[in-house]
Design goal:
Strand content: under 5%
Distance between the termini: 21 Å
Number of strands: 6
Order of helices and strands: HHHHHEEHHHHHEEHHHHHHHHHHEEH
Number of helices: 21
Shape: rod-shaped
Keywords: Membrane, Transmembrane, Transmembrane helix
Helix content: over 70%
Structural class: mainly alpha
Radius of gyration: 51 Å
């Protein structure tokens, strides 16, 4: 039975007063008047101290059970308070789950963009290795072609030294000892530089085997060992005196092998890069184009499901407001607005630097809600509604279409346009770079073939000179000097030189070379048809032999071939001036021009590689910056907006009275699930006895009654 606080206090005060009167009457009968007054005063002080201690104990009890006293004073039942607490806990649990998913979404987006950035850096390194590999192979072809030309030069110089040290002596224009020694030193340096490039690898432990002719038998050596042997023999010849008995043997070895086996090995080695470049790197291009697919897979597999769960939860909470009477929602909204208006009035009295900008923005949203139907605290149940309104009110044009697209991108509740922007960036970066590289790999083959054949052109030019001199030495009824080494057929050499030059200038399917004239390379066309004098040519290049080189390399080579052509059919003695002219053109005027032609064939490849490396590095940096900007200006505002919506939605739910909120269908379902889980047995924390929820409530009611009695006693005192 419940008693009011006033009746309990009155009854307790009456009992205390009657007891005090009885005690006072007994004392007055036994003591004198003077002692009675002292006793009365002492008794009053003792009673006062007891009352003070009693009040302190009751106040402490009131503070320890403030919630129970308030619920008791308000007349609400314990079961009602437990229901409200359960409802608040349920909303808080849903809020925590939404925030946790939002954090997962943030981490997923950040890791996805980080992974794409890492792929971009990796692809940049792969592309750089592709272009560096192509340039390296092209330079290797040119380097080995130059070494092949030097091999022919070694044969010519050794033969000149052999003739000069014979009884014939020096023959200026045909051979001299000093000229031969100078040439051998230059050739040795070039051959030394080519040796490291021919080192064995795991795939080719015996690269480019060649057959070497010794004094006794034929042996097989790797090309680099054969070149090393030739270099050692040349070094010995240059350092040993001419009377050394081993010098003729070493010369004979060089004449037998350098112009045949070693030259053939160098030509084969020049062809190797042509077959190695495209295939391996083409597979690399396929592996490096996975960036857009990685982003798409992460978005579809992780980001989109998380976003869908968050949006579904948000719309469920917003749908709660549709089941609440409009008067309640309107009252909550107006109360929310009034609080912000009051806060703004308070902030107006403070310094402007202390104004909370975010609160002003929220106030503007609230003011806009008063004039916008279907909005709840700046929130809408349909994220596409504003875009639909835009479509209804504006006629289509490119400008409005752009604004509509930008609106979708900036929409806080639409992640697909934002992901679409990043996906388009990925496609632009990965596919464009991959396409350019694939085009480069498919387009440089003709240029590399041209580099190879340009090197072979120099070999044939020197070969015509060497064989032409041997024809001179063996012409006439009495040979000037016997040829002790194998030489090529002069007619075949001339035909080969004509074939190579024609294929380079006009293109050839057999040589797989494009037409230089049709390539549009102005510098190369100028070199071929107008002026063959370049940097490094002799000063009299433009006037030598009636200015033959000033009319272009094509004209000069035609003159060279026409000069050597009679040597193939005549039986008459050949004038030395003919060989002297061939040697002068081959050794003095052609080298700089032929090297310039090779450089013009290689420069488009190296320039494209350099351009692409710089371009792609810049593009990679811009791409990573754009990914960072998309995270900062697209996804971060999305996450912040969703977090703000979740916070405001749950704050508004806490503002709704529990008795109103508990009648909403969705809340009923959630509470039913929660209570269904609560019906399971659980252990009591004190003695381990299993109790049900109803028993716990009974215990709480009992303790609540005790608190009510203690509160009443405190009020009585």
């Amino acid at each position: 039975m419940a008693f009011s606080a006033s009746s309990l206090a009155h009854e307790a005060a009456s009992r205390s007063h009657r007891s005090l009167n009885r005690s006072t009457n007994v004392s007055s009968q036994n003591l004198s008047a003077q002692s009675s007054e002292k006793l009365q005063s002492s008794h009053d002080r003792l009673a006062s101290r007891l009352r003070q201690k009693n009040i302190e104990r009751q106040i402490q009890a009131i503070q320890d059970h403030e919630d129970d006293r308030q619920s008791s004073a308000s007349g609400s039942s314990r079961s009602g308070g437990a229901g409200a607490t359960l409802l608040k806990g349920l909303i808080a649990l849903k809020n925590d789950m939404a925030n946790r998913r939002l954090r997962w979404l943030t981490y997923a987006v950040a890791l996805c963009l980080l992974a794409v950035s890492a792929l971009a850096v990796a692809e940049n390194l792969i592309y750089q290795s592709v272009y560096d590999g192509v340039v390296s192979q092209v330079e290797k072809v040119a380097k080995r072609g130059n070494a092949a030309e030097r091999a022919v030069s070694v044969v010519e110089a050794v033969r000149s030294l052999q003739l000069a040290r014979s009884t014939l002596g020096d023959q200026p224009g045909l051979w001299t000892e000093l000229e031969a020694i100078t040439k051998l030193k230059e050739d040795t340096t070039t051959l030394k530089n080519i040796v490291p490039d021919l080192s064995p690898t795991k795939s080719t432990p015996l690269p480019f085997p060649v057959r070497i002719n010794t004094t006794k038998t034929m042996i097989t050596l790797p090309l680099l060992e054969a070149i090393n042997s030739a270099v050692l023999k040349i070094t010995y010849i240059l350092s040993a005196p001419s009377s050394d008995s081993l010098v003729p043997i070493e010369m004979d070895w060089l004449l037998q092998n350098v112009g045949t086996s070693i030259l053939g090995g160098l030509n084969v080695s020049s062809l190797q890069p042509l077959s190695e470049m495209p295939h391996k790197d083409a597979r690399r291009i396929g592996l490096s184009s996975v960036g857009p697919f990685v982003f798409l897979a992460v978005f579809v597999g992780v980001i989109w499901p998380l976003y869908g769960l968050i949006e579904e939860n948000r719309k469920k909470f917003l749908n709660v407001f549709l089941d609440i009477p409009k008067e309640v929602v309107k009252g909550i909204h107006e109360n929310h607005l009034n609080r912000f208006l009051a806060l703004e009035e308070e902030l107006d009295d403070e310094d402007d630097s202390n104004v909370d900008v975010e609160r002003h923005i929220m106030k503007e949203k609230l003011l806009a809600d008063n004039q916008t139907p279907g909005m709840i605290d700046g929130l809408t149940l349909d994220s596409d509604r504003a875009a639909d309104d835009f479509d209804d009110t504006e006629d289509y044009s490119p400008t409005t279409g752009l604004f509509k697209w930008l609106f979708h991108v900036r929409d806080q509740h639409n992640v697909i346009p934002k992901a679409g922007v990043v996906f388009l960036l990925c496609c632009a970066y990965f596919f464009s770079a991959g396409g350019l590289t694939w085009k480069f790999l498919n387009g440089f083959e003709g240029s590399v073939e041209s580099v190879f054949w340009a090197g072979q052109r120099g070999v044939f030019v020197r070969g015509v000179e060497v064989v032409g001199r041997e024809v001179l030495l063996s012409s006439g009824s009495t040979p000037i000097a016997e040829t002790s080494f194998p030489v090529g057929n002069l007619e075949s050499l001339i035909e080969g030189l004509q074939f190579i030059q024609r294929g380079l200038v006009y293109g050839s399917e057999e040589m797989k070379t494009p037409s230089t004239l049709a390539s549009g390379d102005v510098k190369h066309v100028e070199l071929l048809l107008r002026n063959a004098c370049v940097e490094g040519s002799p000063e009299d290049c433009g006037t030598f032999n009636n200015g033959i080189l000033s009319h272009g390399l094509q004209t000069a080579l035609e003159f060279y071939i026409s000069t050597a052509q009679p040597l193939t059919s005549t039986t008459d003695p050949i004038p030395p001036s003919t060989i002297s002219l061939l040697r002068t053109l081959s050794q003095t005027y052609f080298p700089a021009t032929l090297q310039k032609s090779i450089d013009l064939y290689t420069s488009p490849i190296t320039e494209k590689a350099t351009w692409f490396k710089n371009y792609h590095l810049t593009f990679t940096v811009i791409f990573i910056l754009l990914l960072s900007a998309s995270y900062l200006f697209l996804f971060r505002p999305l996450v912040r907006g969703m977090a703000e919506d979740i916070r405001r939605t749950h704050v508004m739910l806490f503002m709704i009275p529990p008795e109103v909120l508990s009648k909403v269908g969705l809340i009923k379902e959630w509470m039913a699930e929660k209570k269904g889980k609560g019906k399971k047995k659980r252990k009591d924390g004190g003695g381990g006895t299993e109790v049900t929820k109803e028993e716990v409530k009974d215990k709480e009611k009992g303790s609540g009654k005790k608190v009510e009695i203690m509160v009443s006693a405190a009020e009585m005192v």
